Amino acid sequence: MVAHHHSLTAAASSTTGAASSTIASLSAAASATTSHGSSTTCPPLRSPVNDAAPIVGSVTFQHLCEYIAAACAAIATILALMLIIRHAMHLSQPREQIKIIRITAIIPVFALFSLGSIFLGTSAVYLTPWMGVCESIALMNFFLLIRAYLYAAHVEDDYVLANPEVMGRKTSEGAVDTVSQDNVTPPKPPPPAWRVRIWVLQYMGVALLCAVLMDITQAIGKYCLNSDSWHFAHFWIGIISSTSIALAVVAVLRYTSLNKQHMTQHKPMIKLLAFKSIVFLNVVQGLIFSYAGNHITPTKKVSYNDLTVGLPALILCIEMIMFSVVFHFVYRTTPYEKLPSRSGYHGGPLGIKAIFQAFNPVLVAADIVRGY
Fold it and tell me: What pTM did the predictor assign?
């Protein structure tokens, strides 16, 4: 149990600060050519102008990053849209597939945000915190997907929580049996769904609040990427954001792990791993480039902004191609394509109705309020 707790904590810590880790790499770019200043004075950001010499002809390293990232973002977006459209056109289980469509949308979102970061340079600090907002929405929809799986398995978790002795025993119809097994130690019951939803909801609210405050404080010179001093908003927003996402991810991990025996055919932990690996890699490379930013020297053809802003964003765009392929296997449409005729699908012509349901803000909010 201790090892299991440690694994959950480690998994959660790998996901904390996805947006702040990206911003950390931007911070390194900003601090390279500025003085340290006092603890209450924030040094100015480095000019976002790329002053590197061309690599070939008139093509600079930044141009090369832009070209490659644009191509990778386009490929990742097309592959993700193919999966989204397949689910939309074979919408036999709307309660589950609508959530899968929303989760898959994080791939083109991250790809386009990364591409925008390359074009914006150090000004990408205004863009990157909104990746955290998108991630919080995707995490909520993953939790709702798990709820949908449990609903389909006839698992009434509120009843199970009130009667933990019945865990692990079901009737032939799939419902939980009310008679406990003798001499059998019941497994630890999962936390109530309403409690997990509150943890994820607080992450959504905190992510939105932090994104707004980050942009405002950056605009008025109170955020200060170049300093970790408590005098600036950078310090406090980072702590609040990291704590919020850790609480939400641990809650979802625990809820999924303790309920996985009811939905083994869906492989929920693999689905969660595929989704959170996007953020994990973003965190790791953000930390690497943030550290390297204090130990590397720009060359004649590669500027500091190229190494600390453009290159990490380019790598993330490339990674989105990999994840778009992985999602086709992890969130495949095969289980939903077994109907004898298209009359059983509910996505409408070309899946337009399903896509509207998936991305309609009113319907998204309604699903979050209902909790399934």
Answer: 0.76
Q: Which residues contact 141 (CB under 8 A, 6 or more apart)?
A: 99, 102, 103, 367
For the record, the structure tokens of 239 come out as: 């702590």
Could you write out the DSSP letters of every residue in 241-254?
A: HHHHHHHHHHHHHH
- DSSP secondary structure code for residue 42 in this structure: P
Per-residue pLDDT tens over the stretch 109-127: 999 999 998 888 777 778 8
What integer pLDDT is reported at residue 127 of this predicted model? 87
The SS3 of residue 61 is helix
What does each C-alpha distance from 187 to 1, 57, 161, 267 come to in angstroms? 11, 67, 11, 19
Distance CA 232, CA 37 (A): 13
To the nearest whole percent, how much of the chain has pLDDT over 70? 70
55, 64 contact by CB (below 8 A): yes
CA–CA gap between residue 79 and residue 225 (Å, rounded): 35
Distance CA 161, CA 294 (A): 51
Q: 279 with 260: CB under 8 angstroms?
A: no
As a whole number of Å, the end-to-end CA separation of the chain is 29
pLDDT at 160 over 60: no
Q: How far apart are CA 47 and CA 303, in angstroms?
A: 12
Between CA 29 and CA 184 the distance in angstroms is 59
Q: According to the per-residue pLDDT averaged within each range, which of 177-191, 246-260, 270-284 is highest?
A: 246-260
* Sequence letter at residue 200: V
Count how many Cα atoms sit within 13 Å of the Cα of residue 314 in the half-sphere of its side chain. Answer: 19
Residue from 11, 79, 26 nearest 320 by CA: 79
pLDDT in tens, 162-180: 444 444 444 334 444 444 4
